Amino acid sequence: MQPSAPSNAEAERPDIDPLDRVFAAPMWGLSLASLVLFGGLLHFYGHDRGEYAAILLGCIIGSCIIYPVYWAELLIRWQAGQTRLRQFVWCCLLPPLRLGVRDVASGQRLWLPAWGWVQAGRALEQRLKSAIGLPILLLSVLVLPLLAIEHLFANQIAGNLQFHAAMQAAWGLIWLTFALEFLVMVSATDRKLDYCRQHWVDLAIILLPLLAFVRALRLGSLLRVQQMTKAYRFKGAMTRGWRALLVLEAIQRLIAGPPNRRLEKLRTALDLKEAELRQLRAEIHELEQKLAIADTGGTAAERGAA
Predict the structure, then answer these.
(1) How far is residue 123's CA from residue 130's CA, in Å, rounded to a whole number?
(2) For residues 149 and 273, what is the distance between their CA atoms, to the nearest angstrom?
(3) CB within 8 A of 111, min separation 6: which ones?
(4) CB of 49 within 8 A of CB of 164?
């Protein structure tokens, strides 16, 4: 496999490994597809509707087709003598993690669509927040009308397959958006644990459907009515908790506002603090001058008395 011609962004970084140049774009796209398929499994499995069998089967088949590609990439990199392979092993276990893999040469750059290879760190975090903050905010706001629709049209949703499927797809899109944002943002930062602590609500929003899926999958395999009832109850509890967290996150993002507006507020607050500091420094300087003059006058008086 020959490396493709580098883009303008890549041409400015000659130290990018040739295999990174080859795999960056296609593996990012495959990983996004893998995340979409996984989201389909999370949100359509466990419903007592045989009509979803085709959707679930499509997600499973698609995942099985994509999955060996990660092992093929790992094998190619191993044969090429690369040493930083741990992150690619993790991607073989959890394919969506491939979205945030950094380059093997420096471990400080990651590839993003339309941006190419970019340096990870605080500057990239702010750049990403400005770029995706407003779309994420708009999708977060969709949580409230979706909850209202579920409440007002519960009977229609339960009795209409297309309506029910559309609602599940909408919830799946919201989950996918949060998962994609979190994976990209946590990959861009050098303070991963701090980011996870600060955004624990986002992390819980991603993990709760996964816990419900694993629980339903394990109990569903027992083929017992009692156990299936427990699985559905657990999934219902997880779903209610998940949607409560979505509402909390939507409210928080609405209060914070779009990133540009928040940036303006922070800059305004910084200007006010700097003005206060200038005033304090001026007062300190004035008092120091007065004290210096007083000390000079006192010294002169003492000399005159002597």
Answers:
(1) 11
(2) 46
(3) 20, 24, 25, 28, 103, 117, 118
(4) yes
Look up residue 48 and give its two tokens.
Answer: 């007592």
CB contact set of 23 (below 8 Å; sequence gap of 6+): 73
Maximum Cα–Cα distance across the chain: 108
DSSP H helices, 3-85, are 8-11, 18-44, 53-79
pTM of the shown model: 0.71
Cβ 258 vs Cβ 137: under 8 Å: yes
Is the pLDDT confidence value at 33 over 90?
yes
* CB distance 13 to 84 below 8 Å: no
Burial status of residue 40 (CB atoms within 10 A of its CB: 0-12, 13-18, 19 or more): buried
Residue whose structure tokens are 């930083």: 84
Which residue did the predictor score with more confidence, 27 or 216? 27
CB 35 within 8 A of CB 99: yes
Helices and strands (H, E) in the chain, number of each type: 12, 2
Ramachandran category for residue 121: left, alpha or beta (phi over 0 → left; psi -120 to 50 → alpha) = left
